[in-house]
Structures are given as C-alpha cells and as structure tokens.
Amino acid sequence: MIDIAANLKAVRSRIVAAAEQAQRNPADITLIAVSKTKPLGLVQQALGAGQNSFGENYAQELNEKATAQVADWHFIGPLQSNKTKLVANHAAWVHSVDRLKIAQRLNEQRNEELTPLNICIQVNISDEPQKAGVAPAEVLKLAEQLVELPKLRLRGLMCIPSPTDTAAFGRMADLYKALNANGFGMDSLSMGMSADYEAAIAAGATHVRVGTAIFGARL
Ligand SMILES: *Cc1c(COP(=O)(O)O)cnc(C)c1O
C-alpha cells in the first residue's frame, strides 16, 4: 500500500532543501498535490497528513471530488469552453488559461459571492506545436485582456516544458519579471512536476505541481 504521508513528507523536505540551496524562503513555495485519476480516498489521506492544496486536470473529476474539504483546488488541465462552468465555482485557481474566450467564460460564470478566481496564463515555453499554452510573445497581450475581467485575478504564469528544454524555467522567470516590470504585480510562477520540481524552485517557482511522487504512478 502506498504511504501518502511518508511521500508528502519526503517531497516537502526536498522542497525545503531546494529552497535553501537557492537562498529562498521555503514558505514562499506552495506544494500542489496533483490527484488526477486518483480516488478521493487518497485525497483524504493527504488532507489528513496536512496537505491543503490539490490539483486536478479534468473538469468532471474536479466536480466530483469537490465534495472533499480541500482548502484550495487548482485546476491545471486543458479547459474547453463547454467545461468552464464545472471549474469556475469549484476551483480557487486555474493555471491553464491560454485564450481570452476561456477567461471570459470563467469570469461570467464565477459566482459573485466568491472571491475572484486566481488565474495563471499557461505559456508554451518550449514552443511545442501539440502543446497548450500561448507563445511567449503573446503573453503580454493576453495579460492586458485578463486584468480587465473583474471576477478573475491574474496571479502569474504556468508552464509544462519539454523534458529536454533545460533552460525553459529560466526563460519563464525572465518572462515573468518582464511582465511585472510592466506593472502586472503577479506573485506566482507555477512550474515543476515530480521529475523537475527542484530545478523549477532553483529558477524561482512559487507553485510546484507534484502528482506521481505523492500518489504513485498513474495507470
Ligand atoms: C499530471 C500533471 C502534473 C503532475 O505530474 P507528475 O509528473 O505526476 O508529478 C503537473 N502539472 C500538470 C499540468 C499535470 O497535468
């Protein structure tokens, strides 16, 4: 049987070590436990081990798991227009916004009584034709459009680089700094997964999205 508490402890201590190595405060890094395809029972185990932030990739699955008393659900998967409604009121964050139309729908569907939905723009940082995300050169334009939407709050940038693109995290950090120099006031850089979260932290990640190292391999 998988020991979720032990896995979480190991990942957390590696996050602390990577932060200290980079002379960063470990408290500035949020661990998002990516529970996609895993049963609610494992989410409950992680909650019991003190984990508060969880990530899901599929709108329907988020909708089903949202009954759990999770502090922060992060939606991190590709989002189609016909699924935005399932996400707009169950997630606290959406990391995968890469077009205005999706953002407009989330903004329309977000309940007035809730705090604004936190948004990251997904960047196709390794310029892969099959991958979601906006090209780095298009990020500024989308950011300018997103800040006009009152029920959304632009928090930062997200990426899933190609595994061979070792300079990708550094380019993301540069892009993030350049946008903030334009006054966007973003505070979140969502990058790093089980295989590379330490490298992402070295480059400045504030949110790492870790699935396999916590919940085991997915089938
Ligand atoms: C599945 C997924 C993760 C987690 O990946 P692991 O390699 O299992 O840690 C992180 N981010 C996104 C966008 C994912 O789809």
Describe the structure.
The protein is α/β, with parallel strands linked by helices and 219 residues long. It contains nine helices and eight strands. Strands 7-6-5-4-3-2-1-8 form an eight-stranded parallel sheet. Strand 6, helix 7 and strand 7 form a beta-alpha-beta unit. The radius of gyration is 16 Å and the shape is globular. The structure holds pyridoxal-5'-phosphate.
What labels would you give this structure?
binds pyridoxal-5'-phosphate; 37% helix; 9 helices; alpha/beta
Calculate the terminal CA-CA distance, rounded to whole Å.
16 Å
Low-confidence stretches: none
Question: SSE string, helix = H, strand = E?
Answer: HEHEHEHEHEHEHEHEH
Number of strands: 8
Main β sheet profile? 8 strands, parallel
Considering DSSP H and I runs of 4 or more, what fraction of the residues is helical?
25-40%
Q: What structural class should be given to the helix and strand makeup?
A: alpha/beta
Bound molecules: pyridoxal-5'-phosphate
Shape annotation: globular
Strand order of the largest sheet: 7-6-5-4-3-2-1-8
